[in-house]
Design goal:
Strand content of chain A: 15-25%
Number of helices of chain B: 22
CATH superfamily of chain A: Response regulator
Number of strands of chain A: 5
Helix content of chain B: 55-70%
Strand content of chain B: under 5%
Radius of gyration of chain B: 23 Å
Number of domains of chain A: 1
CATH topology of chain A: Rossmann fold
CATH architecture of chain A: 3-Layer(aba) Sandwich
Oligomer: heterodimer
Largest sheet of chain B: none
Number of strands of chain B: 0
Chain lengths: ~160, ~475
Amino acid sequence: MEKINIICVDDEREVLDAVVHDLDYFRDLFNIEACESAFECLELLEELDAQQEHVAVLISDHVMPEKSGVELLTEVALDNRFLGTKKLLLTGLATQADTIKAINNAKLDNFLEKVWDPQELLQTVKELLTEYIVEKGLDYEEYIEKLDAPTLYRLIKY
Amino acid sequence: MKKIQLKYILPIVIPLFILLLPVTSFGIAQMTLVEQRIIAIFVMATLCWILEPIPIYATSVLIIVLELLLVSDKGLWFTQVASPDLGHLISYQMIMATFASPIIMLFLGGFFLAIAATKYRLDVNLARVLLKPFGRNPKFVMLGLMIITAIFSMFMSNTATTAMMLSILTPVIALFSKKDLGRVAFALSVPVAANIGGIGTPIGTPPNAVALKYLTAENSISFAGWMAFGVPFVVVMLFIAWLLLTTLFPATIKEINLNIKGRFLKTPKAITVYITFVVTILLWLMGGVHGMNAYVVAMIPVAVFSMFKIITKEDLKKISWDVLWLVSGGIALGVGLDKSGFAANAINAIPFADFHPLLLIVGASVLCLLMANFMSHTASANLLLPLVAALGASMHSLLPYGGEVVLILAVTFAASLGMSLPISTPPNALAYASGHVETKQMAKVGIALGIIGLLITYAMLYLLNKISFIG
């Protein structure tokens, strides 16, 4: 079974823990990584790429010191090694200019507002994860219990 | 942890052990080294397909490559050292040709039709039109869904059909109350119909194609010939499945409204797809008139869709090469067993002739049904069909019951009837993922349909033999 990662990035430890906690559902089949800054996340991405592990979903806060979430996601969007990675911005404090950048440059797959509804976050990640797995041609049957069935029905064509 | 290890160790150690045994230890007179290697490959394939340490199509590729290395006339040098026990090396061309055998081409043609139909929304639009006459009564809507699923799965892959129909169905099931058992019936109706529908044509499901490989010469069955008994079988089974589902899981909801959006595309390309689709099927059905067999006809859509850029370079990549290779490996396994002379030798050595032929038919098909419930339908067919084909050809006591054709068809049908668990088939796994069905409920329906299906298969084969359609 391939190693598939879900990465969460937030500079506030409590918020980060809360996100990770809400994604507990995926823990037995997927690896959930927590990063406290964009730089930590980029380092982790290097490591995961070296191990040839999958990065299926990247969930990031926007307002962080040194490097913002949109900057991080833009970098990832332009990086050929992470072409299929689904990007989710989780923020309460994004200006219109940030949002425009996030859509145009970071090519977001989803945008959730803080404070988030845990159910909604879970469902969103489920759908993004399912899309990633089908698009990458991974064996969806191995992960099927944690995936979103309607998304599977929509994407499986052949 | 131990179990995981075994899954990797067994498929390596046991075949190696077989290879290292002295030839005389098998108890078969005049056994050759080539035959011994074929046994080792066969055992490895069996273990790999059951335990799945590697993907099932990879096992197929491995079979072909190992045959090339160990038993071909262009294999590794030490495998070719002359010795009185060596036996017949198989031509490497024959082994490689399994990748492009006519059966693979038939399936390729089927894939082209299916991809074009999906791309130009022929499938969804047909479903929309065909579902209309079934009204809104849940019982009849379900019957309609099952009929359409079955028809589609005769020409498309069972998995793709299931995914498409479930995507139509999901918003409807969501309206059912949590307690309404109708949810279960609807969610199960689609995979059940897809599994059953696949039996209807030679291209409906890979096991049928594998069977065609062994139905040659005087036993050959044409496309239309297969449908002549396959479709009635599907109709009867669908009706029984429908009765079973509506009785076991009655819906309390009074009305159902399936809302499928869209209209038929009318671009030149779409019309080319419609025409090619109809013409290909007609040519398949009228095999006797124009002289082309099903394999040759299957190449027509491949040429037409490529010419008109209906299937583009990108679409080509979406062809399920894994399914084609899975079947190739099965064919290669059959070629190995046959051309090495092992199949004939082993059957002479084991006194099968003493068994009652009916016992053999029932035994082989029940074994296949059991296997198909726990592993891939195609892999089950790949393993059992070469054995029963060789056995059937040599058993004269089978003749009054229709000969090897009966045995082959019984096993082939049994392979498609394995549908009692979420792991039995991808359609089952997809339906289970909807969250509306419990394993227990799926097992109840699947086991009942498996047993009923086998009984109907026997009855059908008996009738076919009586009217001299086969045998």
